[in-house]
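Q: My labmate handed me this sequence with no annotations at all. I'd like to see what the chain might look like in three dimensions before we decide whether it's worth expressing. Could you predict it?
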Amino acid sequence: MKTSDFDYSLPPELIAQTPVEPRDGSRMMVLDRSNGLIQHRGFVDLIDYLKAGDVLVFNDSRVIPARLKGKKAGSGANTEVLLLRRLDEGSWEALARPSRRLKIGAKIEINSLTGNVPRPKVIAEVIGQRQDGIKIINLSDESRLSELGETALPPYIHVPLANPERYQTVYASVNGSVAAPTAGLHFTPELLGKIEQKGVCCLSLTLHIGLDTFRPVRVEDPKEHHIYQEYGVVSEEVASKLSRAKAEGRRVICVGTTSVRLVEHLAQFSKPSRLEAFEGWVSLFILPGYQFRIIDALLTNFHLPKSTLLMLVTAFAGKDFIKRAYEQAIAERYRFYSFGDAMLIL
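A: Here is what I predict for the chain of 346 residues:
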């Protein structure tokens, strides 16, 4: 297995630059692993593939305004910081540019205005550095993050987002992600209501999305890639309901690869029928050959070449099936990536 096995060529015009309106107006490709068939449907048709007793698992993490712009103290050089993960009070892992000029001790002045009234500057100080270029940043007042920061869209989206809430799921509730769990962007409150009326159990857990969602695997052997740790929380109630569903033979359908990683992480330390509550760091890297213990179906988007997300989806559906599906998606002019169309793998 090589990282190049997960490469493909995508016409740039198929990278969705803006979200579809309404949210559930996107297309949905349906892959049936039992017979190898591919169907082309609309996302609103998702309800046709669900049945009473199914369990839908959502990631309720909310995207934080993680991009901070300022000037380096002393030189006045323009500087940008992308917060990745909160370590403790005021301390964050972050990417910063120009990276080489921001040594330990460097300070970045982040200005903010509330109306016409100037407010004190917030200082972001570099207090540490990791080997992979990640900085440790201390914010002098992180309580003003919502006022200071901007939503950090993925680097392949070049059109400004008119409404930042369109890069949040309608059920997002727990602040902490750098990027949205994009499979959930297709849901509307109305569609969720219809799904619950059908007797589907909807569960929420939290995994705060970090660096690997937009960082390609750069080593030729993917097993040498060190996946970025992400913080997850699963309540006792959710763990119990997942356990009951598995014991009763009901389907567990994950919305997004982040939900997959968290529920499968749970299964590493317990029996699927006796899952326990969890809070902590998750670094499960799912590659082809992995034996899934919890999920029975997956709702996801189309992923970047050489990404850990594409590797996970390939592990679930099979290399040849995913290759054929992506070829069809390109031929049928599906929209790709964060604001793109959906894929349901049964």
